[in-house]
Amino acid sequence: MRDPFxxxxxxxxxxxFDVAMKNIxxxxxERGLNLDLHVDESGDVEAxxxxxxxxxxxxxxxxxxxxxxxxxxxALQEDSVIEQTLAACAAARIDIVSLPTVNMYLQSxxxxxxxxxxx
Length: 119
Prior knowledge:
Elements lengths: L14 H17 L3 E5 L9 H12 L5 E5 L8 H14 L1 E4 L2 H7 L8 H4 L1
Parallel strand pairs: 1-2, 2-3
Helix pairs in contact: 1-2, 2-3
């Protein structure tokens, strides 16, 4: 078994994320819980959290259900990245919920455009 504190090649620079997610998977397994995660809720084309969650779920053999919400960045990524991410999600049996109305509101915090920006 790989050292849980080692840095994986697939997600360089983020070993603390892997450690945290592995702890979450372990706790959820121990307690018989499913997971509801909010991931990549931004316009960052480089965001890869959804992909990494899927890779880690497979790596640790998580058998609970995983629901990932938002996943906004996925729409901005290259087709090859989208295909890789969706394949990883399928392998991990991750369900995805998109929230277009909520995200249009939350990500458009411009004064005079949304109530969030008016405060």
